[in-house]
Every structure is written in structure tokens, then in C-alpha cells.
Automatic annotation (TrEMBL):
Keyword Signal applies: yes
Protein's organism: Flavobacterium cheonhonense
Upper taxonomic lineage: Bacteria, Pseudomonadati, Bacteroidota, Flavobacteriia, Flavobacteriales
Keywords associated with the record: Signal
Signal peptide: 1-19
Full protein name: Membrane protein
Length: 416
């Protein structure tokens, strides 16, 4: 039954993940877009904490944790995002529903392997402005697309205390942005269309360590490293002379191809260090610091010069609590209660102002009776950006739901 669910969800995910518009943020115009993937739903519920090993949940950020799997695990997650935008002169709202990841992990003795698909970054914005002048000017900016990752990784248990792991990702995607402008006193307007096809590879490496301090209390720590890599962009640009029709649509009167150079965008190197303490299957609390060399980032086209990038740091605190893991009489005692905090400067600098992002998370792991599977739910409230110098402040409320199916696969039947 679980295998049938896995196949059905995999087909659904493959049909929708590449076409979805995963963000509504104007900040997604820069670099490779808005980095959407922040871990599986159970990890996001703890602010994005990845330090704790888990025998039934896939850890999609540290491949070393794959060696901790005891059962074959299938994970899929999605998010409903509700965002309010505020600047010095205007405000707005947007809603998005996205699929966030699909992955499978398989234990093989001391080895654990995993593979899957992750929509990593997303571009999706629509902005309109109208100047209040004698000859009003209408401008409209829009963009769609993003970067997806297909990954495969493995973790190996060197000792009872130490795991190592590595994964490789193939990144691919397309990005399209449009800038339209016209004067009310002129019959035709102009529209610039930019297209980029992206592809490239990158690697992740991980270590995880755990040791008992007392009979009940355990110490956990982890390190991950992602070396710098590159995305190759095949760029093209066209300029359209357009006419607005009475139906509200546009008609292209003339199109001209513009030569633009193909470019490369560097994916920055990243270090992450985490540590935590707790009692297995009862409670855990930990913290994590991630250092990202975002200063090597750039924009898709060389003529985008109103933004710079800086190195960034992410801080995470979080944990979980289970009242009674083995309770047979009380369902609510077996629920995993999670919470976490996250703060980071995103690495994007506009108008000499660093764009920061802060959020708080509360989540629940709901066990499915009679199985090792569960449904994870996360509620996230946060703020990104600022209204400084007419920039945009985003206040968002996200609801994420993840399905984690765990079972013993590849067992030879004794009876048919």
C-alpha cells in the first residue's frame, strides 16, 4: 500500500514541480532567485536544525545522517505561503502553494543511500508602477522560473558514534523576466524579455557525531561543507514593440533579437556547525550556525548593477519534545512537539542595506497508527526586508505539510 502511495505522489510531483511559481518576492529578481528549500518539514519546525539523527526521517541537508536510517523512508512536502508586502508608498498581498521536495532513503547495513528532487530556488514576481506626471508612464516587471536539484547521496557509519556522508546534485532550470514600459501619449510600448537556461553540478559533505553523556543524556554534533560550484547560463534577450488591445492583452508589432553574453553564476561555498543535547525519543535542544560565502554571487546579466552581495550567516535554535513515545492509551502523548527560531542576513544588499530574514516556527509530528510513518505540520511566521529607502518589507505566514512513510522494503517473501 505504501509503495502505491509513493508511486502516485512521485508522478504528481514530477508533473507539477517544474511548472510551479514558488515565490512572489520582488527580491527573487536577483541572483538565481529566492532560495526556497530550507529542509524537510520536521527540520523546518525546529528552525531548520539538522543536528539530530533520525531512524525514520530523511535529513536532506546532511548526507551523513542517511547512515542512521533503520527503515526505508519516503518523504514529500509542500507549503502554503501567505505574504504581505509593504513599502513607503504601497502595499500588497500574495499567496502561493508549492511542492518542496520528494526523496527516498534506503538503509543497507552500515550504509544509507538517498535520492530525490528538490525545487531549490524560485523566481516569481509581478510589479506595476504608474508615475503621477503630466505624461504618465506605466511600468510592469515580472519574472518566473527557478533552479531545481536532482540529488543522490550516501552516508556510512564508521563507528557507533561517527557517520560520514556525501551527495552530488545536478542543478537545472529556466528563468524568464520581462520589463514593460509605455507612455500614455505614445501609441506603442516597449518590452524587454530576458531568458536564461541554467545547469551545473555541486557537492555536499557531512559529518555527524553522537555520544552518551549519562545513562539518559546524549550529545549530538554535526558539520556540513559545500564547496563553491558554478551554474552555466545560456542567455538570450529580445526587445518587443507592443500594442495594448482593448481586451487588456498585448500584441507584438515588431521583435528584435539582442546579443547578450552567456554568463556563469557561482554557487557559494557553505559551512554549517551544529550541536545539541537531549534524551533520545524524549526531548532534544540544539543550535546551528551556517556561514555562506555569498560575496561571490552575481546576477544573471552583467547590466544588472543595482545590487551587490555579501557573506551571510544563519543562526538557528530549536528542538522537540515527546510526552511518551511508547504510550498506547494516549495519542497526544505520542505526538512530537517542535519549535525553533531562525535569523539570517540573506547576502543581498540593496541601497547599502542588508536584507535580513527572521522567523519563528512551531510544528507537530502526528504518528499514523500501526506504522512508523507520520504527518509533519509546520507553522512559520517571519519577516524579511525593510521599508528603508522604499524597499519592500515582507511579512509571511507559511503552513507546511510533510508526509514521511517508513517501512521495510526489499524483503524476500517466504510465502505467496
Amino acid at each position: 500500500m505504501i509503495k502505491k502511495i509513493v508511486v502516485s505522489l512521485s508522478l504528481l510531483f514530477s508533473l507539477t514541480s517544474l511548472a510551479q511559481e514558488g515565490t512572489s518576492s520582488p527580491y527573487s529578481f536577483y541572483g538565481i532567485g529566492d532560495i526556497k528549500f530550507k529542509g524537510s518539514v520536521d527540520s523546518r519546525s525546529m528552525g531548520g536544525l539538522t543536528v539530530f539523527p533520525d531512524s525514520i526521517h530523511l535529513n536532506l541537508q546532511n548526507p551523513a545522517h542517511l547512515a542512521s536510517l533503520k527503515l526505508t523512508s519516503f518523504a514529500v512536502g509542500g507549503t502554503y505561503a501567505n505574504t504581505k508586502f509593504q513599502s513607503e508608498t504601497a502595499d500588497g498581498k500574495a499567496r502561493r502553494t508549492t511542492l518542496d521536495y520528494l526523496a527516498v532513503g534506503i538503509p543497507v547495513g552500515k550504509l544509507g543511500i538517498g535520492f530525490g528532487l528538490i525545487p531549490y530556488s524560485s523566481i516569481g514576481y509581478k510589479i506595476q508602477t504608474l508615475t503621477e506626471e503630466d505624461n504618465p508612464t506605466f511600468s510592469r516587471y515580472s519574472g518566473v522560473g527557478g533552479v531545481n536539484k536532482v540529488f543522490a547521496g550516501a552516508g556510512y557509519k564508521i563507528t557507533n558514534h561517527l557517520n560520514i556522508g556525501a551527495s552530488i546534485q545536478y542543478n537545472f532550470g529556466t528563468i524568464e523576466t520581462n520589463n514593460l514600459r509605455y507612455l500614455e501619449s505614445v501609441q506603442y510600448g516597449t518590452r524587454e524579455n530576458n531568458f536564461s537556461d541554467l545547469q551545473g553540478f555541486n557537492l555536499d559533505f557531512g559529518l555527524s557525531y553522537q555520544r552518551k553523556l549519562t545513562e539518559k543524556l546524549s550529545l549530538f554534533s554535526s558539520v556540513t561543507y559545500s564547496p563553491e560550484s558554478k551554474l552555466k547560463l545560456d542567455n538570450s534577450r529580445t526587445i518587443d514593440l507592443i500594442q495594448f488591445l482593448s481586451t487588456g492583452t498585448t500584441s507584438v508589432i515588431q521583435r528584435e533579437d539582442i546579443d547578450v553574453a552567456n554568463t556563469e553564476i557561482k554557487i557559494p561555498s557553505k559551512w554549517s556547525f551544529g550541536t545539541g543535547i537531549g534524551e533520545m525519543k524524549k526531548w532534544m535542544f540544539g543550535g546551528e550556525v551556517t556561514l555562506i560565502n555569498n560575496s561571490v554571487m552575481s546576477n544573471r546579466f552583467n547590466d544588472i548593477d543595482d545590487a551587490v552581495f555579501e557573506n551571510s550567516t544563519r543562526y538557528v535554535l530549536g528542538g522537540y519534545f515527546i510526552p511518551n513515545y511508547n504510550s498506547y492509551s494516549g495519542y497526544f502523548k505520542r505526538i512530537v512537539y517542535r519549535a525553533g527560531l531562525r535569523y539570517e542576513n540573506t547576502g543581498l544588499v540593496l541601497q547599502n542595506k542588508s536584507i535580513t530574514d527572521a522567523a519563528m516556527n512551531v510544528g507537530f509530528g502526528l504518528p499514523l497508527s500501526g506504522t512508523f510513518s507520520n504527518i509533519n505540520i509546520n507553522f512559520e511566521y517571519g519577516k524579511r526586508g525593510t521599508t528603508y529607502y522604499n524597499l519592500v518589507e515582507e511579512n509571511y505566514f507559511n503552513i507546511s505539510i510533510g508526509l514521511s512513510l517508513s517501512d521495510k522494503w526489499f524483503i524476500k517473501r517466504k510465502f505467496d
